[in-house]
Design a protein that fits this description.
Layout lengths: L2 H12 L4 H20 L1 H5 L2 H5 L4 E10 L5 E12 L5 E7 L5 H17 L5 E7 L8 H15 L8 E4 L6 H15 L22 H15 L9 E4 L4 H12 L3 E6 L3 E4 L6 H13 L6 H5 L3 E4 L3 H8 L5 E3 L9 H9 L4 E3 L8 H9 L3 E3 L1 H4 L1 H16 L5 H25 L6 H20 L3
Parallel strand pairs: 3-4, 3-5, 6-7, 6-10, 10-11, 11-12
Antiparallel strand pairs: 1-2, 2-4, 7-8, 8-9
Helix pairs in contact: 1-2, 2-5, 2-18, 5-18, 6-7, 8-9, 8-16, 8-17, 9-10, 12-13, 13-14, 16-17, 17-18
Bound molecules: NADPH dihydro-nicotinamide-adenine-dinucleotide phosphate.
NADPH dihydro-nicotinamide-adenine-dinucleotide phosphate binds next to helix 9.
């Protein structure tokens, strides 16, 4: 049995109830096969087995009181996966589906993604099975304070710097940062995604959506194409989806879909800037459901179905797909429908939104495919730039940060292609992202000896 297959088998045996973690490890390990032959030093130091084991996984009780005085208990997590190249860095997810396996998959992915950005950041992830939906601002604040009451002792600007993810946006970061500051009596860059007035960076809210679109543009350019006149499917209606729509519009594409966890909207006329502003107000301020879009604008609403179900069932033509909702939203059948309907490029704004079957369909059909590690790395990259600005006690302009983000996305694109070619997988962005991300971390781990 090969080294990497052996690791996949061990991970499945040792953690039987963590399917998302198995999926992430399997994809990375299969990609790393060519590195085994070229780097006997990594095999000798058992880097492959060491990298799938988190440095530590912290699990904690989060007790809080709702507006009616009822006491609730949620389960909080922070997985500090690997700090070989910098402090642990990765978002916090608040969603009822959160469990240890999901946080480990996200933390594991984050190691390679952060390495790809060229910035000195290790990999980590955290979250809680708390559902912010339907909670008052006061309840969300109480919960965030309870969460930080434990998390604060495990994080720090040189140790571990969390950020947002699903269910954690500006409001939640504000409540958590305020409480951290109170507990520690320190105004320091311990969270990213902060408000501009209190240490945040311009372009951080936009970064993931913009970055995914920039990466897609780079991939299209390899075939002498761009976004002009392209029909684009986006999923999700949160942070990533909103700024993906904005950037696609700026680059001349037409976005025809969004969704939330209860419905999909298809707007064949295109979601222009005004409609995007409506979505931002609906989701970020009024915290409503996406189906309201269809009453306000002339559009189709399909309840209980994902964007990819609807595209498949209605045979909707799509040139580019930019999934921005959640893991495993696109299965093999969805991918086949995308190919049949003309899709030439998929860039993952979300983390692992395509199942392994879907990825195989893209690759078998020569679809340009940018995996999440590369495509959504813009978010953490600008978080890294927020950390730099905090350390420098300076704020860069919007233009400066956007220029750096574009430079980083270009460099990620090139690193993926270069690594893929160097290891015999020309044009394979999945292998390229995994190998390029891995090499830097593996070399650092090697330098430290067995620690
Ligand atoms: P948000 O919470 O802002 O938005 C998530 C959106 O996706 C919401 O509209 C939500 O619907 C929808 N959604 C969630 N789960 C499902 C589901 N099972 N089916 C359909 N829709 C669903 O999160 P983000 O936009 O920040 O994150 C989206 C994805 O991007 C995640 O995979 C995240 O890990 C990834 N990502 C985010 C980064 C960031 O900077 N924010 C960085 C890198 C990756 P509803 O409104 O009903 O909850």
């Amino acid at each position: 049995m090969s080294v990497t297959n052996d690791i996949i088998k061990k991970v499945k045996e040792n953690h039987p109830s963590q399917p998302e973690f198995h999926q992430a490890v399997e994809e990375v390990m299969l990609s790393l096969e060519p590195t085994v032959k070229k780097h006997p030093e990594f095999v000798k130091a058992n880097i492959y087995e060491r990298i799938v084991e988190p440095d530590r996984a912290i699990l904690f009780r989060v007790p809080w009181v709702d507006d009616k005085g009822t006491v609730h208990v949620n389960r909080g997590y922070r997985v500090q996966f690997n700090n070989a190249i910098g402090p642990y860095k990765g978002g916090l997810r608040f969603h009822p589906s959160v469990n240890l396996g999901i946080i480990k998959f996200l933390g594991f992915e984050q190691i390679f993604k952060n390495s790809l950005t060229t910035l000195p950041m290790g990999g980590g992830k955290g979250g809680c099975d708390f559902d912010p939906k339907g909670k008052s601002d006061n309840e969300v604040m109480k919960f965030c304070q309870a969460f930080m009451r434990e998390l604060f002792r495990h994080i720090g600007p040189d140790t571990d710097v969390p950020a947002g993810d699903i269910g954690v946006g500006g409001r939640e970061i504000g409540f958590m940062y305020g409480y951290y500051k109170k507990l520690r009596n320190e105004h320091t860059g311990v969270l990213t995604g902060k408000g501009l007035e209190w240490g945040g960076s311009l372009i951080r809210p936009e970064a993931t959506g913009y970055g995914a679109t920039y990466l897609a543009a780079e991939m299209l350019a390899t075939r002498k194409m761009d976004f002009k006149g392209k029909t684009v499917a986006v999923s999700g209606a949160g942070n990533v989806a909103q700024y993906t729509i904005e950037k696609v519009n700026q680059l001349g594409g037409k976005v025809i879909s969004v969704c939330d966890s209860s419905a999909t909207i298809i707007d064949e006329a295109g979601i222009d800037e005004k409609k995007k502003e409506y979505i931002m107000d609906l989701k970020n301020v009024r915290r409503g459901r996406i189906k309201e879009y269809a009453t306000k604008h002339k559009a189709t609403c399909v309840e209980g179905k994902s964007v990819w179900d609807v595209i498949k069932e209605k045979g909707i033509k799509v040139d580019v797909a930019l999934p921005g909702a959640t893991q495993n939203e696109i299965n093999g059948e969805h991918a086949e429908a995308l190919v049949k309907n003309g899709c030439i490029c998929v860039a993952e704004g979300a983390n692992m939104p395509s199942t392994p079957e879907a990825v195989k369909v893209y690759q078998d059909n020569n679809v340009l495919f940018g995996p999440g590690k590369a495509a959504n790395a813009g978010g953490v990259a600008v978080s890294g730039l927020e950390m730099s600005q905090n350390s420098l006690r300076l704020s860069w302009t919007r233009e400066e940060v956007d220029k750096r983000l574009q430079g980083i996305m270009k460099s990620i694109h090139k690193s993926c292609l270069d690594a893929a070619e160097a290891y015999g997988k020309k044009g394979d962005y999945v292998a390229g992202a995994n190998i390029a991300g891995f090499l830097k971390v593996a070399n650092a781990m090697l330098a430290y000896g067995v620690v």
